[in-house]
Amino acid sequence: IMRFAEPLTPERVRYSVPEEMTKGSLVGNIVQDLGLDVKRLKSGRARIFTEDSREYIGLNVDKGTLVVKERIDREELCAQVSPCSLHFQIILENPIELHRIDVEILDINDHAPVFVRKEISFQISELAVPGAKFSLDNAQDSDGLNSLQTYKLNPTDHFVLKTLSHTDGTKYVEMVLQTPLDREKQEEYNLILTAFDGGSPQKSGTLKINIIVLDANDNAPVFSQSVYTALVAENASMGSLVLKVSATDADQGTNKQVSYSFSQSSKGISNIFNVDPSYGDILLTGLLDFEKNKKYELNMVATDIGGLTDTAKVMVEITDVNDNAPVINVISFSNPLPENSAPETVIAMLNVKDLDSGKNGQVRCLINPSLPFRIRQSSSNFYSLITDQILDREKMSEYNITITAIDEGSPSFSTNKTLTLKISDVNDNAPVFQRQSYTAYVMENNSPGVSVLSVKAHDKDSGNNARISYFLEDILVNGVSASTFISVNAESGEILAVRSFDYELTVVVEDNGQPSRSATVNVNVAVADSFPECRCWSVCSGFKH
Question: Which residues fall in a coiled-coil region (predicted)?
Answer without folding.
Answer: none
